[in-house]
Amino acid sequence: MFTFMDAARVKPALSTNPPSEVDPLSSLPDCLIFQIFLNLPTKDVVQTSALSTRWTTLWKDVHGLDLDTEDFNTHETFVSFVDNFLERNRGSSIHLFKVTYDSSYKPDLVNRWVDTAVRLKVEHLDISDDLPAQDIMMNPTLKLMLPCLNMVRDFLVGISKVKDLTIASSTLEVIYDYARYVQLPVFRNLYTLCVRFNSYMWEMLPVFLEVCPNLKTLVVGTTENPKMVDLTVIARPWNLLSSLEHVGIERPLKGEALEMALVGYLLENSPNLKKLSLSLHDSLKKGKSKEESDVFIELLNFPRLSSSCQIIVR
Fold this sequence. Notes:
Radius of gyration: 22 Å
Structural class: alpha/beta
Strand content: 15-25%
Domain F-box: 22-75
Organism: Brassica napus
Low-confidence stretches: 1-20, 131-147, 228-235
Helix content: 25-40%
Protein name: BnaCnng66580D protein
Mean pLDDT: 76
Largest sheet: 9 strands, parallel
CATH topology: Leucine-rich repeat, LRR (right-handed beta-alpha superhelix)
Strand order of the largest sheet: 1-2-3-4-5-6-7-8-9
InterPro entries: F-box-like_dom_sf, F-box_AtFBL13-like, F-box_dom, FBD, FBL13/AtMIF1-like, LRR_dom_sf
Number of strands: 9
Distance between the termini: 35 Å
CATH architecture: Alpha-Beta Horseshoe
Number of helices: 11
């Protein structure tokens, strides 16, 4: 397991290059190095402090965090690292705040991090939990990150300006329940949305999608064996998803009713959809080619509001 170290204690690696040989990385301007760092996990960024004396503390100036609790030996070290990152960036905006945590972290702590990131005008927010699906279904405290309507309202207003958002189904369910009582804020700046489902709750998606008028890309992820749960869907006519252009469904389809209903909803309500990408479960391919499967044929026969939409079956 990688252990984060105080950069001040990391000794710079001695260069093996001849004096006349120029290190191309070291010659890059800081702004370009920061752009590279923003595309790396934070644990890898911290390790660059050992490459040269110039990079000893450079990682601390990166306005992005991509961290997983599994990268740390202790709960306290993880919390301290996240807190220090937010404190260092208190006077500036954040490009990325991506944190993956487990059940040992209290919702109040995660809420505080999200609230701080939002106040720092984070552009890309990704808060994910590693909770087993059954824990989320059985424990309402874990399921509801934000315990009251006022907190949910403040949370949603805060993140409504992000451009790229990844949320777990537990958070989406909170948003869904909130929408039963209060009008959701409009996410005008949201262009990319990834939703990770732990259960068959895809019916919740339309509630959130219709307040994302400029959404271009939607990725629907899920666990391998999502749980079946009872869910009362809000009955209403759904608005068209006029801006949506690309959809990716990560879990291989088995042809189950809820899966096909989701695909049908997206195809029938997206007038400008260019591509819907998905794959079929191996159980559907036994003795048949992909093109011969009943699910494949059903997909091709779905009505499409967009005449130029391609269904890509991997």
